[in-house]
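Closing statement on the magnesium ion sub-project.
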Amino acid sequence: MLQLPQHIAIIMDGNGRWATQKGLPRSEGHKAGANSIDRLMETALELSIPYISLYAFSTENWKRPISEIQSIFQLLNEFIDSQLNKIHSNGIKIQHSGRVQRIPFMSFKKIYKAVQLTKNNTKMTLNFCLNYGGKEEILNACNKVIKKKIKNNDKLDKGITQEELEKELYTYPLPPVDLLIRTAGEQRISNFLLWQIAYAEIYFTNTLWPDFHKQDLFQALEWYSNRVRKFGGLK
Ligand code: IPE
Ligand code: IPE
Ligand code: MG
């Protein structure tokens, strides 16, 4: 019996390269990447993995050409429109992690609707990290804790605790990440879930995100099940 992770986080990278290799526009790569999300959801449900976090758009991705940004948000809108019923009937809860400001209004409305509709679902949480940056998240959480303390007339000189900060992370109440997967060969974190991956096992694969199939997830899970997790202690 494999030891399965509770929380899998994925840096879905390589959509652009996938398209370029096929002589297609980059937007076609993002479209193919959306199909990979659909497949992944099905497999995760079959395996009863309770938490999945997906890096869909970073706070740094605004540096890309406006046409590419528009096509990513357009695809997100289409993804929600076409998948929401299925997501809901499968008992999946949608969460959004990231800064709301700057997300195009239409996309924000759709995400908000998806979050509201699915909020009581319990089979699995699909956490969309959109306009997400790990540094921004930690700073935002610190500022929120401080503001709360000022409002409650609490003393600030005692500092803040990990528990207080964690409650203000966008990902709350998700548990820490057990397995972080990054596709497309790059071996970096790119500002993803910096706090939550403190003790995650990190799996890099050369497979481009649109080519990531059930079998690739199984490979990652098999690799994960052979890790010895010590959390700083001894085994
Ligand atoms: C990841 O694929 C998807 C997003 C960042 C939205 P990329 O678009 O980064 O693909 P590559 O890295 O250029 O191949
Ligand atoms: C990370 O991929 C962000 C997402 C997958 C959404 P990038 O392609 O933006 O990361 P870098 O620029 O290669 O580090
Ligand atoms: Mg990339």
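The chain has one domain: 7-133+175-225. With this model delivered, the sub-project is considered complete and its resources will be redirected to Aim 3.
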